[in-house]
Design a protein that fits this description.
single chain, about 350 residues, 3-stranded parallel sheet
Length: about 350
């Protein structure tokens, strides 16, 4: 076996992270995607180890998939927000340009990772040189991008509390993804996710959008209604903290995770559909194309516990339907809902 099975695999590390977040749903784990996208596929030769620089060592290939399938284990957790690294947008002329080493997904079961990207180029921060000496240093990579994202997340939580919005890990994740700046073409991909985190937009949507937490039960869909003036294209984001999955072990090699096992890790499967007017044809969420992870299609998503619908602007009534396709754990699943571009919800309880 030439390929390292741990990249993008649901092993004991994501299992642990999902267990902790499932037991503490107020908590959002923000994790670095890793800096392994540019590793050579020639073991034993001098090759790049991301921000660690070139070195000679011998190990199995990170991936045989042209840079895909290189996200580290922590980021594979369903309830984590996985962050890739981009160049400083001011230096890059406001464009969204990926750091060369930033790891790509998707996970082995086809989930989107990373979900967002952030500045990971020469980020300046404090550094402890010894027990008594402190200084500043600049670092690059997805760890730096994760620190940037965590800082933005803290500001969003602060604003939630000020607006008397009850924070949760799922709601915070939904807000950060909902307001990320997309890199065209539209839709997520396995390198940039839904785009670059945007602190201002994340804070603004708390006041301008519809922010809800709904309880979804089997056989009891939740329906939210809106009346749009058609001025803006609607976007709907729904996220939930899912129960831990079950790691798949290699049937031959003892204590080794199975290589590229596509078994879905999703336990509670929630579906969202958006209807314009009396149309019976719904707008559906984005889901990665398994044959081409750099593009996404709009279809039923049965793998992610984060779903986003983008629809063309149209005036009139809109209906958002949230359904429990399967509840493998518990009788009710709390879901975080973020809606923009549709005005206020006309049938929601205060």
């Amino acid at each position: 076996q030439e390929e390292d099975p741990l990249f993008c695999a649901y092993d004991l590390l994501p299992l642990t992270m999902d267990t902790v977040t499932f037991q503490n749903p107020h908590h959002l784990a923000v994790a670095a995607a890793g800096n392994d996208q540019t590793h050579s596929v020639v073991p034993g030769s001098k090759h790049d180890h991301g921000f660690l620089g070139p070195r000679v060592d011998t190990h199995r290939n990170d991936s045989r998939k042209n840079g895909f399938d290189t996200v580290n284990s922590w980021c594979v957790a369903k309830n984590a927000l996985c962050v890739g690294a981009i160049q400083d947008r001011l230096v890059a002329g406001a464009g969204i340009v990926l750091n060369a080493a930033s790891s790509w997904g998707p996970t082995d079961d086809g989930r989107l990772k990373p979900e967002v990207v952030a500045n990971g180029q020469t980020v300046i921060s404090t550094i402890g040189q010894s027990a008594t000496t402190e200084s500043f240093d600049s670092q690059s990579g997805t760890s730096s991008a994760t620190a940037v994202t965590s800082g933005i997340a803290a500001l969003v939580v602060q604003q939630m509390i000020a607006l008397k919005i009850a924070p949760s890990g799922a709601l915070l994740k939904a807000v950060l993804v909902h307001t990320a700046t997309d890199r065209l073409p539209a839709g997520p991909d396995a390198a940039y996710g839904f785009g670059s985190v945007d602190a201002e937009a994340a804070v603004d949507v708390l006041s301008s959008g519809v922010i809800r937490t709904e309880q979804v039960r089997q056989g009891q869909p939740v329906e939210m209604r809106f009346n749009s003036n058609g001025a803006r294209a609607p976007r709907v984001t729904v996220a939930w903290t899912d129960a831990p999955g079950t790691p798949r072990w290699d049937p031959v090699v003892k204590n080794q995770i199975a290589l590229d096992d596509p078994t879905p890790m999703l336990v509670n499967d929630i579906d969202i559909e958006l209807f314009a007017g009396q149309s019976l044809k719904p707008e559906r969420p984005w889901v990665l194309d398994p044959k081409d992870p750099m593009r996404a299609v709009q279809a039923r998503n049965a793998v992610d516990n984060l779903e986003v619908i983008d629809a063309p602007a149209a005036s009139g009534e809109w209906r958002l339907r949230i359904t429990a396709a399967r509840l493998g754990a518990g009788q009710v699943q709390p879901v975080a809902v973020v809606v923009s571009g549709l005005g206020g919800c006309t049938n929601c309880a205060p």
